[in-house]
């Protein structure tokens, strides 16, 4: 493949290529969290080494035109080794294999560059030193990569965003193309013309590629950490608001009890029995309004609902609550209050935009359907409407603006319990459904995903 | 479209009258036809109950038996009637899930809330029409009710339709069935399964549990959209 290069040097032996590819896979298998038994990983490694060597020797028998094809086969083998050996998802596997591939290219290239240098300087045959150099360079590259990547991959939450995987893939392809350009043709502005120089270019480009991939992963990790922080901040903030509202409600209660005292005093003075009974009825209605406490079977949900109900009463929102709180068994108090608090805040916020108070309607339902617990929060809305050509009202998805962060937080909690959120709008109604699978009649947090 | 049969049960005749007049107004505005029957005694209503109605509008605070009790007794005879509670105190309706009443109306009854609730109840009644498809099995056509289909499985170039009563081997590709059934509560959860979400009773790890007790694998990349579709499907039912 290097026949076009002036004072051509032999390129990397196929056995070395296979070993460096295998070694790079090993590094990423060690760095990523393993989800399969150790024995399976070990078997995959043994079979993988044999397969990679096999592929390299088989590729050696093919004409030069098939070189790219044989590289693809080798990468596919590495991919299989990583996915089968670690049990990560196919997408995460792709994310890992492009890194392993660039690392393999880098280590092989660096070693061969040094090997060629010393061999031409000292003698043409010093196989023992050559072997030591091989072990030393591959070992050092592998160890350095492992140390650098371990921190990066031990905490990554797989699955990754599709976009990141795609970018990694592009970086790897560009790195590979640039580093090998000189081997395909010396007649491009980016090709080296002298053998040693060509090796150096390849090593440098591979190093750059690896560094870019590393930086990308580091960035992703940072983003994830920031997102987590933001979510914690938001929770604390929402709790604080909750507290302020409860306090406001307590003040309101004090005011009402003061009013009641006056009404009772006035009632005592009332002599006309008919008027008296009318006043009593009014009083009873008033008391009922303020004593309406929810008893869903979940004390945390009761508090959230009672608080939000008062806000609804203040805003003229008519709220219908049908809830079997016992279904929330297994969900932490924090998650219950965040989930329902956010969902109701969203609904209340949207309803405050509805001008006609008669139309301020909201419904909450928490019920069981087979082995699922379902939370449905619905509200009427009038904003974000556009007219269709046939004169009918068309609803546009009421999205990020109104239900932005709240929905993210609800999704986060749903995922935590292995569930999912669906949002639909129909006929001026915004419907948020949270589906939570129940295992043996309880909710439970899922790990790993 | 046939008339919607509504029963109104409220021990206050004035309240019954109001609801009946609201139904008339709805009928005028929306062009919907109702056959309305009103009852002022819950006990008599329950004693003579036959599953004739589509929608039940039930007052909760009634004597001699309250609306929740009426609903419970009705449910023993009629699983499908849509029950809407009307109450002046919301705390009495919070357990409505026991009788499949997932929302209620507050007294004094405002027109707008009433009309929205009726609209939804009608949609629910109309949504229950039994749909079916015609499939070709061994050279002849067979009609299958959609609700009877548990799932369809792709086996080489044919599909096997697993229904509640038997398995049908069809010459149709799963892909074609998918495009036909996707809008009707079916979901392609795996390269070889098209499941009826009405029969999905649970999800465990990577598997969906069917009403027949079968566990079907959900492919990893489809799990999220599957759960979303399921949330929307189950949440859309009452």
Describe this structure in words.
Chain B: Keywords: DNA-binding, Phosphoprotein. Chain B: It holds the Pfam family Response_reg. The complex is a heterodimer of chains A (449) and B (238). Chain A is of the alpha+beta class and 449 residues long. Chain A is 65% helix and 10% strand. In chain A, strands 1-2-3-7-6 form a 5-stranded mixed beta sheet, with helices on one face. A two-stranded antiparallel sheet of chain A has the order 4-5. In chain A, a hairpin with a 2-residue loop joins strand 6 and strand 7. In chain A, helix 4 packs parallel to helix 6 and helix 5 runs parallel beside helix 7. The N terminus of chain A is likely disordered. In chain B, the strands form 4 sheets. A 5-stranded parallel beta sheet of chain B has the order 2-1-3-4-5, sandwiched between helices. In chain B, strands 10-9-8-12-11 form a 5-stranded antiparallel beta sheet. In chain B, strands 13-14-15 form a 3-stranded antiparallel beta sheet, with no helix packed on it. In chain B, strand 1, helix 1 and strand 2 form a beta-alpha-beta unit. The longest helix of chain B has 18 residues. The radius of gyration of chain B is 22 Å and the shape is elongated. The interface between A and B is large, with 46 and 40 residues.
Keywords:
heterodimer, A: 449 residues, alpha+beta, 5-stranded mixed beta sheet, two-stranded antiparallel ribbon, 11 helices, elongated, B: 238 residues, alpha/beta, 5-stranded parallel beta sheet, 5-stranded antiparallel beta sheet, 31% helix, 32% strand, LytR-like (chain B), phosphoprotein (chain B), DNA-binding response regulator (chain B), Sig_transdc_resp-reg_receiver (chain B), DNA-binding (chain B)
User: Strand sequence of the main sheet of chain B, in spatial order?
Assistant: 2-1-3-4-5
Oligomer: heterodimer
User: Fraction of residues of chain B in helices?
Assistant: 25-40%
Average residue-wise pLDDT of chain B: 92
Question: Could you say which structural class the secondary elements and strand pairing of chain A correspond to?
Answer: alpha+beta
